[in-house]
Amino acid sequence: MTERPQAVVIGASAGAVQALLKVLPALPATYPIPILVVVHVPSDRDNALVGLFADKCLLKVKEAEEKEPALGGTIYFAPSDYHLLVEQDGTLSLSSDEPVHHSRPAIDVLFQSAADAWGEALAGIILTGANHDGAAGLRAIVEAGGAAIVEDPASAEMPAMPLAALASCPGAKRLGLESIHSYLLELVEK
Q1: Is 181 a catalytic residue?
Q2: What domain count does the chain have?
Q3: What CATH number does residue 82 fall under?
Q4: Whose CA, among 74, 121, 171, 183, lies 20 to 30 Å from 37?
């Protein structure tokens, strides 16, 4: 990636709340690119992440809605029991297709569709988790020319997902949570 990205996608599972609380709340309200987040949440419950992060973040935080444009200054969380996708025109789409890696929403679904839509103007971040969802999606981002960042497995609450992502994308930047936050700030200085 040589220019400022058009979007950032983040995937996390077990340990996600604690990891995201170290990355998202201190981003400035003027952060100019959209952040799309998939966290594995049980399908039989409402996604409480929006309320939690809306109270702690300077950015607008909302649940992604069908056919809305992905706008800067906003963090979009995938709704419970729906895959979050990005259309070619940069609008968001929701799907109730079959779970992927036993998850709906699935990280791979978001990352692969975002790579198709934004190509090299995309940064993908894999955080803590106990499975391998996101590894194939992060590879799709790399193959499209985008940037790949993985939480350092040594500091991740659950290292399985970061390890799978690094196995799939050995050239990904391996960063601690504080460094991921700094990386997100540096992205918009380009």
Answers
A1: no
A2: 1
A3: 3.40.50.180
A4: 171
